[in-house]
Amino acid sequence: MFLLSSAISAFVQLGLFLVIPFAWWAFTARRSVGFASWIGLRRPTWDGRRARLGVAILAWVVIGAASTALLQSLSGDVPAARFAGRGLGGVVPVLFFAIVQTSLAEEIFFRGFLGKRVIARWGFAPGNAAQAIVFGVLHVAMFASFADPIRLLAIGILTGASGWIVGWLNEEGAGGSILPGWALHASANLLVGTAAAFNLMG
Questions:
Q1: What does pTM read for this prediction?
Q2: Best label site of 143, 144, 164, 183, fewest CB within 10 Å?
Q3: Is residue 186 a contact partner of residue 99, using CB atoms and an 8 Å limit?
Q4: Pick from 107, 59, 85: which is nearest to 193 by CA?
Q5: pLDDT tens per residue, range 71-106
């Protein structure tokens, strides 16, 4: 039952996050480009600046580690807490949560839809900053009911910085593909969810 509810929850959230992007594409770009390509669900084309890509990924890992430590301080109030203590029985639900419900849904909406639209209108620097700020504010709103102001500020800064790095990686490093950001985002949520399932989060 938990597996089924996790799968349903994951695909419902993905569907909700797809509504606005799909409608926008249907009204503005359907005749000229397919939805997957428009949203960035396509193979990356790396630009060869490996040193910069490596620094970006390293910075993202450091921010991810800080975010994980912050989430541990919030204990049972984080979304992944529903997997706590489930062990092997939580592995497949964690996969739905990490790969579909959070990372795919959020990467499509924030980097694939919002980021690409504001970057096209304002240019890369302000556009990428805008999507990162919205991403950070959303996470602050998610935790506002139970986190204190200091931790809320940290959540906003860390998630916003993470969103900025992923936006840079996708647009400047991978030719507009959101697959690298999806992979990074999913891997982080997979680690947090698995740690919760096996009671490794403090």
A1: 0.92
A2: 144
A3: yes
A4: 85
A5: 777 765 677 788 888 999 889 999 999 999 999 999
